[in-house]
Amino acid sequence: MKCPICHTHSLNKVNLETGLSAHQCNQCFGHWVPSENYWEWLDRRQQQKQRHQPAPIRLNVGQSLLPVVDNSTANFCADCDRLMTKTRVGRGLNFYIDRCGYCHGVWLDQNEWENIQKMDLHYQIHYMFSSAWQHSVRHEAYAKRATPA
Ligand SMILES: [Zn+2]
Ligand SMILES: [Zn+2]
User: Where is the Transcription factor zinc-finger domain positioned along the sequence (predicted)?
Assistant: First the structure.
């Protein structure tokens, strides 16, 4: 497995959340999240919710976002080497994440996962690539431009 940005075998296994393992590049510090890891984690969370265990309330949503240097290159999947597509996160986060359309793994540059988590959007990464999400992000950007400063 190669880092999509550095093109070196520099990915190490890390835990992003309890039950969610990913691979982090030890050069650029981005994260590679294989889709099966993500879905397993989401499924388990869904089962917990059905057992009436409420999700912890986060009081610090949106606070102290970390600096992001978004990659602007076309990148190839860490797992299957196919070209990935970019989608804009929106909801107050002005960067793009990359996803492989074949194996559905997701690449996040340094601090992107952390900021998505801070905005409490980390349970919705799979929706970010849907046309409904993208439509609302475009609408959000348009509304911002239309508002006089
Ligand atoms: Zn890297
Ligand atoms: Zn792939």
Answer: 2-43
pTM for the structure as a whole: 0.89
DSSP result, 105-143: -EEE-TTHHHHHHHTT-TT-GGGGGSHHHHHHHHHHHHH
Residue 1 covered by a domain: no
Handedness of CA 101, 72, 28, 30 (dihedral sign): negative
pLDDT in tens, 3-28: 999 999 999 999 999 999 999 999 99
Kindly give the distance from the C-alpha atom of residue 142 to the centroid of ligand 2, in angstroms, as a whole number: 32
Distance 61 CA to ligand 2 centre (A): 31
What is the DSSP pairing of strand 93-100 with strand 106-108? antiparallel
The pLDDT of residue 82 is above 90:
yes
The two three-digit tokens of residue 147, written as one number: 């508002």
- 59 pLDDT band, cuts 50/70/90, is low
**H helix and E strand count, the chain:** 3, 6
Q: From the centroid of its chain, how far is CA 49?
A: 22
Assess if residue 6 is contained within a domain: no
For ligand 2, the distance from its centroid to the CA atom of residue 77, given in whole angstroms, is 5
